[in-house]
Write a structure and sequence with these properties.
alpha+beta, seven-stranded antiparallel β-sheet, globular, SRPBCC family protein
């Protein structure tokens, strides 16, 4: 498998790390800031290996939590087999606020390496505003 970075972006959210983590992992509220997600629910509590079921338009899909460090980072993965997409959220304290970094990485088999360019562009375009949306949601959440 080869890795291809589709996006690497950061946003400063004017809330504590604990509060941002709480909002980031409130899966039912994810449609308020995750692009293309109409509904989401967790099959189990947030933890390594947990599966998140979500609906995007008429499609039902899943994300799996493949890496987790409480209040520091979480990686969600979709797909599998020849192509998977990993959404890596890293949180860091920054003068009493939270700096959130989102990296989106595509894993693809070597046979598909030449075809990943279009997927990278589509993912980057779709996810470009994710952290701005998270910030707007988080800073206005009750």
């Amino acid at each position: 498998m080869a890795q291809f970075q589709a996006l690497d972006t950061q946003e400063l959210i004017h809330l504590s790390v604990a509060r941002v983590w709480e909002l980031l992992t409130d899966w039912v509220a994810a449609p308020r800031w995750m692009p293309g997600v109409d509904s989401m629910e967790a099959e189990q509590l947030t933890g390594l290996g947990a599966v998140l079921d979500y609906r995007s338009g008429t499609h039902e899909r899943q994300l799996a939590i493949i890496e987790l460090s409480e209040e520091q980072s979480i990686t969600l993965s979709s797909g599998g087999g020849d192509v998977s997409v990993h959404y890596c959220y890293d949180l860091a304290e920054d003068s009493g606020h939270t700096r959130v970094r989102l990296r989106v990485v595509i894993d693809a088999s070597e046979l598909l390496a030449d075809e990943v360019g279009e997927l990278r562009a589509a993912v980057a375009s779709a996810e470009a505003g994710t952290l701005r949306a998270l910030r707007a949601y988080a800073e206005s959440a009750p």
